[in-house]
Write a structure and sequence with these properties.
The chain is of the alpha/beta class. The chain has two domains: about 130 residues, Aspartate Aminotransferase, domain 1 (Alpha-Beta Complex), CATH 3.90.1150; about 240 residues, 3-Layer(aba) Sandwich (Aspartate Aminotransferase, domain 2), CATH 3.40.640. About 45% of the residues lie in helices and about 15% in strands. It has a seven-stranded mixed sheet with strand order 2-10-9-8-5-3-4, with helices on both faces. Strands 11-14-13 form a three-stranded antiparallel sheet. Strands 1-12 form a two-stranded parallel sheet. Helix 11 packs antiparallel against helix 14 and helix 12 crosses helix 13. It is globular. The mean pLDDT is about 95. The protein binds pyridoxal-5'-phosphate (PLP). Pyridoxal-5'-phosphate binds next to helix 3.
């Protein structure tokens, strides 16, 4: 095959929404002008609408981790007792950030593929009075598992702790009712459900979280919630913004609003459920016990290194992801978050069948694809 289109089939960076990419060509704009202020103001308003919250939503020039870091440095004090629910590589990142800032963290960890149950969080909250914060991933992209955020939020809400959720791949793939459930801080990143390149990080801040900010003593400078809120209200960002990405964001948010966030979520959920059906047909086991819809982590067939599957897809020009850390070689991950459609899934599963056969996992051609087609037909009828 001589023409192979390059495709990013990964859960971040995700495929780019073309009009957002085109909008970046207007980047020769000065950020301290009325022209840019009006774009930034409306982008922040749309961001809030897409977050579905009446809380403040701040925007930073950083990858998602920047907003995770800022959520610790702006809202806590040295030695604060916190609980970290860690169920994968991203959960471990919360642990590292909490440690870096000298928080007193109790870690509830789950084996890779598993989740931290609300029952465990409930027990930990009872055992540890005076907890100031609870950290979790809505979806841990490294394992494809999804936490029960609604149930966890209900446990944290009546306490003095704030509930800090890394929703970087949860947003756009599962319901996250910030105001209704009591998610005090929800972190997002541009290169996931927002369909634009990496480099912007978002964070919503509840009144309860602002009250924590008023008492927090950890050092921070570049990422400053209070400064950024004040700047944002005036249609500015505190420092020079990532102008090109803001232009892209403004465009992609218009698209998400037009489609509707609920439909963006339904889209990812359909693609994920169709992928799970396909795996069943292809005798492949899922890795996560509570699989989410941002990415489906699949165990490689017994005796096969998952790297061979990643390599095989590469021969089609497509990039899928291997496992991270100790999961490397064990699993491969098929993404659904953001700008993915059903035709992407037909192609992904068709290519997967060919690659599996080439590596000795004898499946019948078309069995997985047919499962995706059936899922599509069923969803259309519903
Ligand atoms: C991608 C991702 C992040 C952020 O990683 P960055 O490399 O800083 O963008 C954080 N949490 C989860 C769950 C992610 O998927």
């Amino acid at each position: 095959m001589h023409i192979r289109k390059q495709r990013l089939l990964t859960p971040g960076p995700t495929p780019l929404y073309p009009p957002a990419l085109h909008a970046m060509m207007a980047s020769d704009i000065h950020h301290r002008t009325e022209e840019f202020r009006s774009i930034y103001k409306s982008a922040l308003a749309d961001l809030k609408e897409v977050y579905g919250t009446s809380n403040d939503v701040l925007c930073f020039a950083a990858s998602g981790t920047g907003a995770m870091d800022a959520s610790v440095s702006n809202l806590f004090s040295r030695g604060d007792k916190v609980i970290v629910c860690a169920a994968g590589k991203f959960g471990e990142r919360w642990v590292s950030i909490a440690k870096a800032y000298g928080l007193n963290a109790t870690v509830l960890d789950a084996a890779y593929g598993d989740v931290v149950t609300p029952e465990r969080l409930e027990a930990a909250l009872q055992a540890e009075p005076g907890v100031k914060g609870v950290f979790v991933q809505a979806s841990d992209t490294s394992t494809g598992a999804e936490h029960d955020i609604r149930a966890m939020a209900a446990l944290v809400k009546p306490t003095d702790a704030i509930f800090v959720v890394d929703g970087i791949t949860g947003m756009g793939t599962m319901e996250l009712d910030v105001d209704g459930w009591g998610i005090d801080v929800l972190v997002g990143g541009s290169q996931k459900a927002f369909m634009i390149p990496p480099g912007l990080a978002f964070v919503s801040v509840s009144p309860k979280a602002w009250a924590h900010a008023a008492k927090a003593d950890l050092p921070h400078f570049y990422f400053d919630f209070k400064k950024e809120k004040k700047s944002g209200d005036a249609g500015e960002s505190t420092w020079t913004p990532a102008t090109s990405l803001i232009l892209a964001l403004a465009e992609s948010l218009k698209y998400v609003k037009r489609v509707g966030m609920a439909n963006v979520i339904a889209n990812a959920q359909l693609l994920a459920s169709a992928t799970r059906d396909a795996c069943k047909e292809l005798d492949l086991d899922l890795f996560a016990t509570r699989p989410g819809s941002s990415v489906t982590a699949v165990k490689a067939p017994a005796g096969m290194d998952s790297g061979l599957i990643v390599k095989g897809l590469k021969q089609f020009g497509s990039v899928i992801t291997n496992g991270q850390g100790s999961m490397k070689g064990q699993i491969f991950r098929l993404a659904h978050i953001g700008y993915f459609d059903i035709i992407d899934m037909f192609g992904m599963v068709a290519a997967l069948e060919i690659v599996l056969r080439a590596n000795g996992h004898q499946v019948e051609l078309g069995k997985g694809v047919a499962a995706v087609q059936r899922a599509y037909e069923a969803a259309r009828k519903a």
